[in-house]
Design a protein that fits this description.
The protein has about 280 residues and is of the alpha/beta class. It folds into two domains: about 5-115 and about 270-279, Alpha-Beta Complex (Aldehyde Oxidoreductase, domain 3), CATH 3.90.1170; about 120-265, TIM Barrel (Alpha-Beta Barrel). It is built from ten helices and 13 strands. Strands 7-6-12-11-10-9-8 form a seven-stranded parallel β-sheet. Helix 5 (about 135-145) links the parallel strand 6 and strand 7. Helix 1 (about 5-15) packs across helix 3, helix 3 runs antiparallel to helix 4 and helix 8 runs parallel beside helix 9 (about 220-230). The chain is elongated, with a radius of gyration of 23 Å. About 35% of the residues are buried.
């Protein structure tokens, strides 16, 4: 699983404590020995625990207990505990708690979609889009992977994905522009989005490697999956747009085994209880 860099974690810490902790320093309690524990208030897929632990270690804190990202936690389960000075623990407390809450929220929603899909067909792949909040790509990728998903596309430089918005500027038929794309990037697959069954059928006939169905119904998806199976070699069919935990099973039942979704990025963070006290 990907690892967030210490430089990124240090930036997060500096955002929260740029010039010291006025409260802890003003009360004169910074040198006191203290302990901190983190636990899940509700069942959740854990993500970001290693980063929380590293932020504590970066402030000279000793880790006593740490569970890994990707672990399914029960309500009340402790996943991180540590000891150090009150000043260090207060400096890391909120930023580490918030990071784990947000990442675990994404990981938990991902796992729910993965489980719902694989209850129908275990080989189904859940691929999450790049519609993470801008500036959070590294942490978002970590959360998606902790939940059992993969990234659909990291950016424009990574894959060829032809949208109707591209084709609005192209006057040639699909077989011609696909040939040009293959010549420009012979090691890349050609992924093309289709908005109708008729468009998908034409793209299949022209040899697209992946047909991405945008906001298709399960019934329309089943038609395209059947068309793709008749083609040799058969293209991959991916469903995208509007896929959630509640409807993913219906799409998998069509025979589609690649599900593209943004749903894990949108929802509430998980709730993590932190206890910080003298020891």
């Amino acid at each position: 699983m990907s690892r967030l860099s210490d430089s990124l974690l240090d930036q997060l810490l500096l955002q929260d404590v740029p010039l010291g902790d006025l409260t802890t320093e003003g009360l004169g309690i910074g040198a006191r020995s203290a302990e901190i524990t983190y636990c899940a208030r509700n069942p959740m897929v854990l993500c970001g625990s290693e980063e929380a632990g590293r932020m504590l270690e970066m402030r000279g804190v000793r880790i006593d207990h740490l569970l890994p990202s990707g672990r399914m936690l029960a309500a009340g389960e402790i996943f991180l505990s540590a000891q150090g000075s009150a000043q260090s623990l207060h400096a890391v407390w909120k930023i580490s708690q918030t990071l784990v809450e947000y990442l675990s929220g994404i990981a938990t929603r991902t796992r729910r979609i993965v489980d719902a899909a694989r209850n129908v067909a275990p080989e189904t792949v859940i691929a999450c889009t790049r519609k993470n909040f801008p500036g959070t790509k590294e942490v978002s990728i970590r959360a998606i992977r902790a939940g059992g998903g993969i990234m659909h596309r990291l950016g424009l430089s990574e894959t060829i994905l032809v949208f109707p918005e591209h084709l609005a500027f192209v006057d040639e038929p699909p077989d011609i522009w696909m040939t040009k794309l293959r010549a420009q990037a012979p090691e890349k697959k050609i992924v093309v989005e289709a908005a109708t069954v008729e468009a998908a059928e034409q793209l299949i006939a022209c040899g697209a490697d992946v047909i991405q169905l945008e906001k298709f119904s399960p019934q329309e998806t089943a038609v395209v999956v059947d068309l793709a199976r008749r083609q040799r070699p058969s293209p991959v069919v991916a469903v995208a747009g509007g896929v959630t935990e509640d409807n993913v099973g219906a799409f998998v039942e069509t025979g589609c085994r690649l599900i593209v979704t943004s749903a894990p990025f949108f929802g509430k963070p998980c709730d993590v209880k932190v206890t910080l006290k003298p020891c």
